[in-house]
Amino acid sequence: xxYCTTGSDLNKIGELYKEWTGKSFKLKSPLVNSFFGVAKxxxxxxxxxxxxxxxxxxxxxxxxxxxxxxxxxxxxxxxxGIAKALMKFIETQALGVGCDFIKLxxxxxxxxxxxxxxxxxxxxxxAFKRQFKA
Length: 134
Fold this sequence. Notes:
This protein is an alpha+beta fold. The chain has helices at 10-21, 82-96, 111-119, and strands spanning 2-4, 34-40, 47-58, 63-73, 101-104, 123-124, 128-131. It contains 3 helices and 7 strands.
């Protein structure tokens, strides 16, 4: 189950990021122009995946676009379609707030992630990009 996070999930997201990076995170609410997609297993309370969308209003180009950050699925829950569901949720959120496109960056060594972005029809350049509007 993927949904938009509530303030009560922020501590759990911080714990998940700590597991991922080894660093402590204390997220504050509300985060302006930012949405977290959160994945929980059916009937569960544990957050097993997360993706962040940051909405950017670009006055120079007169457009709104989304930056995707911090996509992570907990070990033991991978290869079950969770990351794909998170990204579809993030895309729906981006479209819902009027984004023309979304972009994300990914390290050169993130081969599994690159395969996912390509399967979701992101074009690859300096960043991975998914265009919504021309």
